[in-house]
């Protein structure tokens, strides 16, 4: 069974930093592109960042470019999101999501974790 | 950025009735369109990709259609577990992926 479990969320002050983790199991993690998608309270979904299976290709939404860094450790079956210079508008539930396709990116997300809440407030 | 507009914002439907949800793209996305279902407190679930291909395990009462800028998700006979929020997502313009604002399907 595919499982994605996020952790690392919490309350942080504006300008602060936080590192999110996503532990994957039940599939060959190293074969799939992985993604972060966020959802502000009561709002819709916003794609944040993507990383290819071997970390060769990394992409960010304009809203987080230069502040967030996505990475992965295939030996640990883990995905990460380092978030710096956090703003109030970054407050959201952050989901990690697996790409539908093995070996290549389809940009469709077939499995999602339950999310971790990040609150940026003074 | 491709803007995805979903309508209506809220759809009131009785169980057993058909529900038709719309999604419009600000420019053509070909057939690179996915639909997700999200229930309160849960993560989104993939329903449809490629505009009309059902994801693994998705019941046949869910169907998608359209191409270019106009897309439709149809739920042929609403079950109690189908009341949720539905989002469309374009991935034609990757890596700039965008979602619609969602349609809430509620019990009439």
Count of alpha and pi helical runs of chain A: 0
Largest sheet of chain B: 7 strands, mixed
What separation lies between the terminal Cα atoms of chain A?
40 Å
Report the order of strands and helices of chain B: EEEEEEEEEEE
For the largest interface in this structure, which chains are involved and how many residues does each contribute? A-B, 20 and 23 residues
Features:
heterodimer; A: 122 residues; mainly beta; seven-stranded mixed β-sheet; B: 108 residues; four-stranded antiparallel β-sheet; globular
Explained architecture:
The complex is a heterodimer of chains A (122) and B (108). Helix content of chain A is 0%, strand content 54%. Chain A contains no helices and 11 strands. In chain A, the strands form 2 sheets. In chain A, strands 2, 4, 5, 6, 9, 10 and 11 form a 7-stranded mixed beta sheet that branches. The relative contact order of chain A is 0.31. Chain B is mostly beta strands. Chain B is 0% helix and 49% strand. In chain B, strands 2, 4, 5, 6, 9, 10 and 11 form a 7-stranded mixed beta sheet that branches. Chain B has a 4-stranded antiparallel beta sheet with strand order 1-3-8-7, with no helix packed on it. In chain B, a hairpin with a 2-residue loop joins strand 7 and strand 8 (70-75). Chain A binds chain B through residues 37, 44-47, 50, 59, 61, 95, 100, 105-110, 112-115, and chain B through 32, 34, 36, 42-46, 49, 55-56, 87, 89, 91, 94-102.
């Amino acid at each position: 069974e595919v499982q994605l479990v996020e952790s690392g969320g919490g309350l942080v002050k504006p300008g602060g930093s936080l590192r999110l983790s996503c532990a994957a199991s039940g599939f060959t993690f190293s074969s799939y592109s992985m993604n972060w998608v966020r959802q502000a309270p009561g709002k819709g979904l916003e794609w944040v960042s993507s990383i290819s299976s071997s970390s060769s290709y990394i992409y960010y939404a304009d809203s987080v470019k230069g502040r967030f860094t996505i990475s992965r450790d295939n030996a640990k079956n883990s995905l990460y999101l380092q978030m710096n210079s956090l703003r109030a508008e970054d407050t959201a539930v952050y989901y990690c999501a697996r790409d539908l396709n093995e070996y290549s990116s389809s940009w469709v997300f077939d499995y999602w974790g339950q999310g971790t809440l990040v609150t940026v407030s003074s | 950025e491709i803007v995805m507009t979903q309508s209506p914002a809220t759809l009131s439907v009785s169980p057993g009735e058909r529900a038709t949800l719309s999604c419009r793209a600000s420019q053509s996305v070909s057939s690179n369109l996915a639909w997700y279902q999200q229930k309160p407190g849960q993560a989104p679930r993939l329903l449809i990709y490629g505009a009309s291909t059902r994801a693994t395990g998705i019941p046949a009462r869910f169907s998608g259609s359209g191409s270019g800028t106009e897309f439709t998700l149809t739920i042929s006979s609403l079950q109690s577990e189908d009341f949720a929020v539905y989002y469309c997502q374009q991935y034609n313009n990757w890596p700039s992926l965008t979602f619609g604002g969602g349609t809430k399907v509620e019990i009439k």
